[in-house]
Each structure stands twice: as C-alpha cells, then as structure tokens.
Design brief:
Length: about 500
C-alpha cells in the first residue's frame, strides 16, 4: 500500500485494535473498527461536530423526536423509526454496497475498473468536489436553526428535524471521505466544514444560496423543494464518479434526499391548498386579513428560491465541469441512460446568451456546457411540482396558476448575470427592473407579513391557519401523532 499519507487507500490498522467498540458510537458499514487511525481521527472530530450541533443546530429545546435512522443500505428496510432525543441521533457512515465489477462509465478512463483509491493526478479536484458538497450540508442546518420556534404543527416540526439530522449525516458522509482518503489536508478541510458558517461575514459558506437566511416556513418549503433538489442533481453526478467510495456514498445519500424534497413538494402544496380555500371562502385574492398567504406572494417566494438555486449550477459554460467529466470524476445525470459515446469530444448543443438586449441561441461544445446539461434536467424536474401545485388550484376551481420564471430571471451567475430579465423572459433595463422588482421578488413587507403568520402550533394533530393538513402521517402513523415531545422549557 501507499506510504504517502496524502494519497492511496484508507489507512490500515497499525496497532492493537482499540478496545472501544466504535461501532456502538458511530454506526457504519465501512468496518471502522478495523482501521484504528481512521477511527481515532473520526473520534477526534465527533465532539466538534456535536458542539457545532449544539451551537448552530435546531434551537428549539425538545425531549425527543420521531426520527428515522439509517440502519442498513439494502433495498428493503434501511430505516428505523423511533422517538429519540435529537442530540443522541446515531449519525452514521453508510455507503451503498460495492459492485466489484463496476467500471468508470464516462470520460477518458471509460471502461477501466472504478477507482478504490484516489488517483494522485486528480486528488486536488476530487477533494474540492467533496468539500463543496460537504459545505452545503451543515449550511442548511444553520439556515434553518430557528424555524422550530414557529412550526405550523408537530408533524412539520418533525419533518424539519428529520431533514436537519440527515443533513448532519451527509456532513459525516463527506467528512468520512476526507478523513479516509485525503490524509492531513482532508482532516483540515473537515475542520473547516465546521468553522465556515452560513451568513458569517468573515467565513461564509462556499455557495451563495447557502448564505441566505431561511426566514420562515414558506421559504423552508421552497428551499427543500428547489435547493435540496439542486443537491439531488449534484449527488446524481457524483454518484457516477469513477472514485467508487464517493459514488457509493452519494448513492445512499440520495435515498435520504428524497424525503427532503417530499417535505418541499407537499409543504408548498399544502400552503397552496389552504390559500385556494381562503380565496374561495372570501371571494378575494387578498387573504392576508384571513390569515392566509396570497398566491402572488407564494409566486414571489418561488421566483426567489428557484433563481438562487439555478445559480448553484454555476456558469453554463465551464472548463472545470468539462475537465471533471473527461477525468471521470463527475458524470452527467443518469449517465448510463444517455445514448451517446460518453466522451462528448465532438458533441455540440445549443445554449442561450444575451446579445444586444436579446436572448439568442448559439451552438457550443457539449463538453463545455455540462453545468447547463445538468441544470436543464433540474428545470424539467422542478416543473413537475409546479404542475402538481397547479392541479390543486384547478381542483379548487381557481383560474390562477403558478409558474417557473424564465431561466434568466434574477441570476447572479452565468450568461444572464449583469442583465435584467423578467419572469416571462423579457430583457428589461435597470429602471424597469427597479420599478417591478417588488412584483417579482418578496419585498421586506411580504416577508414581514408572512413572518407574522408564523405562530407555533404544538398541539397534537393541529395545524396553523395558513397551511392545510397533510394527507397522511409519517411511517404510517396518523397525522394526529405526538411526533415531537418538547422540552418543558419550550412549553413554558
Ligand atoms: Fe444533504
Ligand atoms: Fe437535503
């Protein structure tokens, strides 16, 4: 094996096996107990993680929460549900099962056996990909820290905490890779993942959307719909990676991610349902006075979260993305379903650019536009939820509809940055933008009015007035179920 601490396989045990049964402390399927150096490194990181959780995790004091914990990676029965004190959640390390015959599915190493070690020539790039992914996981926990104080129900409170503990577990997943495969530099990066904090002036999180405040529950639902979905697509590309431990980690993370997006899809849907109900009941769209959120404001929240999430895909054209692909580090969404040569050296595609105040198409090498390729997949997926929400409006007999704004709307990254594009896709001048911004994005007043509706509803089976109850409970429990037991101090 390699003796260079910076590259090569995860370190093997060098001394007598520890008497601490580490499997008890960190559930895992990577045989941590057999690797003493790695085990000790993660042991050293664990209290720092728990300290971070205490300082920047959910602020509402709870006794216990009905949470699912990953206990296996198999197709059936990977999760276990129980009431557990959140700080005792079993954050574990789980990789999807290894396929010993797996080959690299794309790029110039296509067909070679998947790497079980970090290839020296791609070490820096792989580490960067893992750090950027890892940075988003605790960031969202920080952003959502105070939401528990205003939850619309115990059901929603439980879902928030489920998302939070799993984002914490995703951090563990990335930290495991850094510790196991990237030596001292990896361990230093793992420390930094707890030191950068969302919105921190001096040391912010790496990506813009993860420094925005999550001010209220409507934004939380939009976040889990649009921003967790960006996470799904990023994980989907890393799941194709030639670096097998990363691929297997991401494959398992995707299972958990599905619930986060369920929270977003159904959360927005329930807000829309309640809004439709109030509009019909009172015969007006202006339902603030009746304790509901007007559809126009829901649309503005949607516009905001969609546009900042679109920025997470990076510039449409990116040499890095092309290099990651050619090197076999990061694939395309559902790479093996693509009917092409999986090398893309001669393929072209169309992309939009802004020229002389017009949006026009031009042809570019596909390899240079892989961020756009992924973003297009994402956009198509985002449209599904909007259809569902519109179905709720139609079912209520209303003519109003929600829509995804144009891809160029409110963009800070890529070809549209520096241009003003309306939600309908019209390039406008700065004066027009300034005059219309309040119609397109949530104003301070909108946010204040939404915040005013955010009163906690902690009674079993009850829901705040601005949101409908869900169709069903979690894990076949009834909607009326004590999903969360608050600490005495929270009730006082
Ligand atoms: Fe995550
Ligand atoms: Fe997530």
């Amino acid at each position: 094996m390699s003796t260079d601490a910076r590259t090569g396989p995860a370190p093997s045990p060098t001394g007598p096996l520890s008497t601490i049964d580490y499997n008890e402390r960190i559930p895992n399927n990577v045989d941590l107990a057999a690797d003493r150096r790695l085990q000790r490194a993660l042991e050293g990181w664990q209290p720092k993680f728990l300290d971070w959780w205490k300082r920047l995790g959910p602020s509402l004091p709870t006794k216990d929460v009905y949470l699912r914990t990953a206990i296996a990676v198999g197709r059936d029965g990977w999760a276990h549900f129980a009431h557990v004190p959140m700080e005792e959640y079993r954050w574990g390390i789980f990789l999807a099962d290894r396929n010993p015959d797996r080959t690299i599915p794309f790029g110039k190493h296509k067909g070679e056996p998947a790497w079980q070690e970090v290839p020296g020539e791609y070490r820096a790039e792989l580490q960067r990909l893992i750090v950027v992914q890892g940075d988003t996981e605790p960031a969202s926990v920080e952003q959502q820290r105070i939401l528990g104080n205003t939850a619309p129900s115990l059901y929603d409170l439980r879902n928030l905490f489920q998302v939070n503990v799993e984002e914490g577990r995703h951090l563990w997943a990335m930290v495991y890779l850094l510790h196991a495969y990237f030596g001292r530099e990896g361990r230093e990066e793992a420390e930094q993942l707890l030191k950068r904090n969302s919105g921190d002036e001096d040391s912010p999180r790496i990506l813009g959307a993860f420094n925005e405040e999550t001010t209220d529950w409507l934004q939380f639902f939009m976040f889990t719909y649009f921003t967790d979905r960006d996470g799904k697509y990023q994980l989907g590309t890393l799941k194709e990676s030639g670096f097998d431990p990363l691929a297997r980690t991401c494959e398992f993370m995707l299972k958990e991610e599905a619930h986060h997006m369920f929270v977003g899809t159904t959360g927005v849907q329930r807000v829309v349902e309640r809004t439709a109900e109030l509009i019909k009941e009172h015969g007006t769209d202006d339902i603030w006075q009746y304790g509901g959120i007007p559809l126009t404001v829901i649309q503005k929240y949607l516009n905001f979260q969609y546009s900042v999430s679109m920025d997470l895909f990076g510039s449409e054209q990116s040499t890095n993305a092309g290099n990651y692909y050619s090197s076999g580090l990061k694939g395309r969404w559902q790479e093996n379903r693509r009917k092409d040569d999986h090398e893309l050296l001669t393929s072209e595609r169309l992309m939009n650019v802004v020229e002389d105040g017009q949006i026009v198409e031009k042809s570019v090498p596909l390899l240079s536009a892989l961020n756009l390729d992924l973003r297009d997949e994402y956009v198509a997926d985002c449209a599904n939820g909007v259809r569902r929400w519109n179905q709720a409006l139609e079912d209520a007999g209303l003519d109003e509809r929600l829509f995804l704004p144009h891809e160029g709307f409110h963009r800070a990254v890529g070809v549209y940055s520096g241009h003003y594009v309306s939600p309908e896709g019209e390039v406008v001048d700065e004066a027009t933008w300034e005059a219309r911004e309040g119609d397109w994005l949530p104003s301070d007043e909108d946010r204040r009015a939404v915040a005013a509706l955010m009163v906690p509803e902690y009674e079993v089976g009850k829901f705040a007035g601005w949101i409908a109850a869900p169709q069903a409970g979690i894990n076949e429990q009834p909607v009326e179920f004590d999903y969360v037991h608050l600490a005495e101090e929270a009730l006082a």
